[in-house]
């Protein structure tokens, strides 16, 4: 019961930035609900997988892949580009906290001087940020690579 409440809470609060960024990107109003649903499903799946001890990077890849596949399906159904549905939906999975902590480590290195601990912390957070962003990119690109790949003419 506690897992279900945590998951519903996570999904509800991930729909808010998805819709907010969809509004910023001028997504048509009839599509906003799908952006919210995709944001909820992708982030909810990632949270569920992390809860069951899957590493965050792989869980992010699978969540972004789910968003990508459903976005391609919706794009065929509503005759729109898949990015209309998917770009705003992955925004809640952007690793902002890791990027922020990496920048704070850089500021502390500048202020206090170089130390092995701060440098190690900075590198760790930058690598986590890079890998999570890469998982988002590859997860979103996966359906396009599978469905829209150009085959060479023989």
TrEMBL record:
<dbReference type="InterPro" id="IPR050539">
    <property type="entry name" value="ThrE_Dicarb/AminoAcid_Exp"/>
</dbReference>
<comment type="similarity">
    <text>Belongs to the ThrE exporter (TC 2.A.79) family.</text>
</comment>
<feature type="transmembrane region" description="Helical">
    <location>
        <begin position="84"/>
        <end position="109"/>
    </location>
</feature>
<protein>
    <submittedName>
        <fullName>Threonine/serine exporter family protein</fullName>
    </submittedName>
</protein>
<keyword id="KW-0812">Transmembrane</keyword>
<keyword id="KW-0472">Membrane</keyword>
<feature type="domain" description="Threonine/Serine exporter ThrE">
    <location>
        <begin position="10"/>
        <end position="144"/>
    </location>
</feature>
<feature type="transmembrane region" description="Helical">
    <location>
        <begin position="48"/>
        <end position="72"/>
    </location>
</feature>
<keyword id="KW-1133">Transmembrane helix</keyword>
<feature type="transmembrane region" description="Helical">
    <location>
        <begin position="12"/>
        <end position="28"/>
    </location>
</feature>
<keyword id="KW-1003">Cell membrane</keyword>
<dbReference type="Pfam" id="PF12821">
    <property type="entry name" value="ThrE_2"/>
</dbReference>
<keyword id="KW-0997">Cell inner membrane</keyword>
<dbReference type="InterPro" id="IPR024528">
    <property type="entry name" value="ThrE_2"/>
</dbReference>
<feature type="transmembrane region" description="Helical">
    <location>
        <begin position="129"/>
        <end position="148"/>
    </location>
</feature>
